[in-house]
Protein 1
Amino acid sequence: MSNPGKLPNIKYGEGKIDKAQLEFMKLIEEQNLERVQKLQRVKRNNLLTAGALITSVVGIYAYSIWSVKQEKFLDDFDEPKKVNAN
């Protein structure tokens, strides 16, 4: 096992990146950028769809409440008068 009091040796001079690794990093970065843009586009479309659905539901609900308030046929309904048999 490692000694807890001793730090690992780090060689600073050997950390150079060659041209192939740089090209690979650029390729991965471009693919990641395309993926992020696609996810942002999907998120925007999902938000637009959710907004349209919510607007439709609220509109239908408001219209149904408004149309029920316009119905007056039950307001004019009078109870039949009771006839006394005396």
Protein 2
Amino acid sequence: MMCNASLITMFFLSGLNEAKNHQFTLFSLTLLCYCVIWLVNICLIVTIILDKSLHEPMYILLCTLCMNGLYGTVGFYPKFLWDLLSPVHVISYSGCLLQALVMYSFACSDLSILAVMAYDRYVAICRPLEYHAVMSKQSLIKFVCFSWLTPFCIIALNIFLTSRLKLCSPCIARLFCVNWIIVQLACYPAETIVNNIVASMTIIIYVFHGLFIVWSYISLIKMCIHSIENRSKFMQTCVPHLLSLFIFLVAILFDIMSMRFGLKYLSQNLQNFVAIEFLIIPPIMNPLIYGFKLLLSRCK
């Protein structure tokens, strides 16, 4: 057993052990999925940038959501594709921490962006006369910076606390690096108290994000019940957002269940899919949902 973190220069990822006979099939499907993610997100980003009529807060936030999706998938897919063609699945110590930072700052940023989008729809429908003052260019820049920088700093703090731990094992039973699992490899559990406190605070912060989104949509639904015009606005702009939110929350819930409770009764392959669902479905479905909405609005 290794008792010093400095001795661990590599981590071994064992999530692909049961898929060795299907590696080339998985490689082809994963490469196709990654190409689709880039295609649909880039198409929507370019459309929003080039069409001046879409230079509105809602679409700028959507553009931010798509960019964040590309950022998050870059942290997983290239390394995963390499592992599918490699007989040994390893990652450097620093590379592992960097991957955890990218993937979980992406997930937290997604929730922050969805919260800002919910606030944008709340102001647009419930306080229409104040909309342009509240969602001004300066305010939008602040919201976007908040959605990207705050999650990055919070997750970076979690990763920094992990980097100070002495680890006793280089084995990670996942397809990718997960901060919570790295913390569990600590030689001395007493050293992880600060990690657990900060991790709990991080979870609480993003639970409040979720509660804010729920509150904003409850307010919107109450407002829209009594107005045909507001009902129409809700259907056009909020339903796609609700679909994106539902897809994201289901994906994250499965990942948390897989990470915290193990789900050992599931096969390794199914556990793998549950773990990476938030890197497959939201990055593909978000641009498709909003792209379909844009297509419908242009046809009208």
Protein 3
Amino acid sequence: MKSTSRWIPRIAAVCLLLFAFMLVAGCHNHPNEKELKALEEAKQAALSAETKAADCAKEKASLEQQLTQQKQKVESLKQEKAAVEKRLSAWQ
């Protein structure tokens, strides 16, 4: 998950830089079709990166919740094991 969380902000930064470059390069009155297409592609890439970042954040939260539940289950089973061992030693 650490490697995923590192590249998502980088993709967003690259998209924003590309968007800024397109704005600077297109400072004349009438952008041509090529510039409009590049701008639209940059917007779509930025939206896609933001969506993917949000999805990854949701997945991370879900996995952290599952991890917490599993840790609680392990602790419960350890306590149950200790109780069984105690009863077993008292029985013998």
Protein 4
Amino acid sequence: MKIQSIHLKHILHFADLKVDFSYHDKPVTLILGDQASGKTSILRFSYQALTWFAARYKDLRSAGVVMLDHDIMLNRLQSKIDIQVAVPAELYALKPTAADTAPESYTWQLYKTLNQQGIGISRVETLELEQLVNLYQQATLQDPLQGLPLIAYYPAERFVNEMNILSKNNPLIFQHAHAYEISAIPYTTFARFFEWFREISDIENAQTAQFLQTILHQPKSMPPDIPLSYKLAQAQAHIQSPSLQALKQALATVLPEIEDIYLQYHPKLQLMVRYHGNIMLYQQLSNSIRNWVALVGDIVRRLCLLNPESLFPCLEGDGVLLIDAIDHQLDQNMAQVILKRLNQAFPRLQIIASGNRSELLEQASEFQCLKLENKQLSPIQLEPLQHQFDVIYQNLANHEATIGSTEPIAAEPQDLSVAELFTQIQQQLSPEQQQHLITLLSAEDDASSANPLT
């Protein structure tokens, strides 16, 4: 599933704003704008509209997130969200009889209207949404490998409040409904990621113990010429959980400095990481790295739950990923590559992010870049900016080369004696210059001196 367009009418300070996404050619959309320009509102209302898919997939009578009364533009009586989405072509392939008549896109609308008492009344038009839900339900029944679309929104207020790795044996953790959130999200603490990571780590440890027991207690009739190392390698290939493998591969792509992540059970249950070759506690990482490890891990968790039969959920998972203030807590170098790395780690996701730093445009030639200004969106022309960056880099390179080729500055001469200084003056100055020097020194000489120069 991909968002084709989102239309906001009379919402907050947007009188009429429509965003068209070029997801076919440019799977990443970056919205740049100043503070309070409305970037968060675009992402938040897009997420609210998408929650209706998750709610209706769970139950056709369930409701998603509705608009609040104060979301209606001042001096207006009604606000409207109109969203249009497209689905992968393979869904239609599972229904050959309806492939010709199936629509290319699906739309649904959310309304909020003030009555005479000033109370907001919500109304939705979800006929095509219900058709979309039915399409996914039939597709998953006919093809067990068919997954559900990711719908994830991470607001600017995201942080790791507490690592809950003590709770276990929660049957809801592995249900696809646990990958969706059907409520407003003012902030994110990634609590579900740590619960999920504990469960999949326990499963892998149990499988490891079982395989080792099988190898150690094999009957003596088994061929003795098979080395133990080969048996262990085979066991390792069997017990590797797709979820853990997907998590480590995604972290290696987005955060290469995180080389490994695992649970240490003895002598105390702790979450450990290998960071720049050093093993340390997860809590000892910087705040920004902790948040990004949890964010990437939470995306992987959702994709694994929505694609349970896939061996490569991160590479095959489809859906929409919304990240507000993506450049928050990132240094200049990381801000330049974060979008490209996310696209490499999750190539089939439509990534829509907001930010306000020009460093995000450094490697954004293949992205859709929009500028939000004066309540309107306009495309950013990257060619002139890229030319400016190239000129700046070339000037810096030339400047460094010039500095490197400059002859070293001669060392300052040591203090000379009066006789040596007098000899240099006689050798290097003409008689007229010597007389002029005496005149200047005499003019600055203190008349109260015991030995004037006259």
